[in-house]
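LOG
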Amino acid sequence: MIRVTINGDARDFPGELSAMEMMATLGLPATKVALERNREVVPKSTYGDVIIRDGDQLEIVHFIGGG
């Protein structure tokens, strides 16, 4: 079990997972969000490679279109 903080809220996951897997678990389209892990922006091209670990601090920003 790992615990991470997402946008200030603690969340538990069964174990370490990639950023892409975490997005899928949360029901977020990876193409429409930006991810910051431990105060560093994570490039979208690396979401499948970046591993989310116990204690990570995450910020997820949703892009919303409009006019």
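LOG (cont.) second protein
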Amino acid sequence: MVRPSLVGLEPYRPGPTLSELRREHGLEEIAKLNWNEDLFGPVPGALDAVTEELENAWMYPEQAYSDLRDAVATWLAIPPETVVPAHGIQALIAAVAHTFIREGDTVLVPQPTYGLYAQVSAAAGARILRVPNRDFHLDLEALAETARAEDARLIWLCDPNNPTGLLIEQREWDAFLGTVPDGTVAVVDEAYREYAEPDHRVAREPDVLAGRPVVLLRTFSKIFGLAGLRLGYAIAHPELAPFLDVVQEPFNVNRAALAAGRACLTHPDRVVERRDETAYARALLAELLAGQGVESLPSEANFLLVHVGGDDLALAAELVVRGFLVRPGSEFGLDGWMRVTVGPPPLMERFVAELAAVREGMRG
């Protein structure tokens, strides 16, 4: 009775809860270095805004979300009508799929990248073609060539890419946009954008406003530390943005999330502080790993892709026993690697010490 495109797809399974893992291994605490939440917590002011808004919990949120649209527009210097708030980037990925994809359309997904792009597109009835990365970088030239050859409807991009943390350069992006065929839309997930240095990022808002085939997805889950409140937004051309709202459920963003999002944008300096804080911890983690002879990629996100060698699944399982959750690279097709979320320096020091002990024990 279900749509044929759903047959064979598996729902996302997050695995055991923290409380279950603590009971199983007799641990008081477990450090979550596997999901790329911001381990420094919500930016100052966000929780106060949530508390103040709770007295309005009996009311539906204002459907227009005009306050958040205006706050984002002011922060980015773009028109409010280009901003489409949503219940996190995951909800926006689904909205994009339902807006553009027709049964049998071809959708291009880099390999490796965030897994939800392929799953949601396949559920919408698309044919998924995976385009391998080149030296861990997104191969934009190959993506554009494949889009022309296969008449692709969508190209999914993550910048910085998950799980590598590597950025697209401006010259690469400009060349890519110049060769994307008519009728193909590039959807860029910029969840980790704020962690990258401003002069390293591609500024894509002008492309959207110029009517180029680009949709941007951004979130408050990462650098703002609001993953549990589920808040994100798309940036789309004013003629396109209303269609994204058409396919979204009404009142899909709750009042607490909206209040926290507005508060986060009130003090841009706090975003700079969090970026610097994360960059310091990321550099420290890379340095500590290098001291153990462990290589990592030069990330500009809040995680590192680390080359541990050997059986990364077994290594990750041993780290759980010691109180650390990491993401095995095998889940991305990167055997012998693992993705590690960056957190406060003392946590990074403890993690590297435990990783060294586990690797030594496994060699023994």
